[in-house]
DUF6265 domain-containing protein (Flavivirga aquatica), 156 residues
Amino acid sequence: MKKLVIIYLFLISTTLIAQKTQTLGSKLENISWISGNWKGEAFGGITEENWSEPSGDSMMATFKLIDKGRVVFYEIEIIREINNTLILQLKHFNNDLKGWEAKDETIDFPLKKITPTKVIFEGMTFEKINSNEMNVYVDIHQKDGSIKTVKFNYTK
């Protein structure tokens, strides 16, 4: 009987571990939970990030940071399916829509992995807390060459 209980507990624990580390395919339908109108706080101000539902092999977002009642900067972001994987690309703009990146330049974040609760790009991770809350972790390169990971907590 002891053997049976031990085997049963082992099977349950391996099933739970497998569920937590399950990797999903590189399809927009597997990350559609990102879509919605998200609000949070970061960099001493208020942040808004609005993601569309998947359509046309892509998702699109706008981001803005507001500090002391004024827009500091905007971003336009897309996640698109290319060559059986996903890539997140973005461009920054001042509050007068003057771009930070060159005309044909984007900041690219190749996909590393998708799980039921995380979308992990190189340098940016989306984490689903529940249907109305997510965290976004962004690696920001510092002037001294180091990388600082900034957490954005968003709610719908």
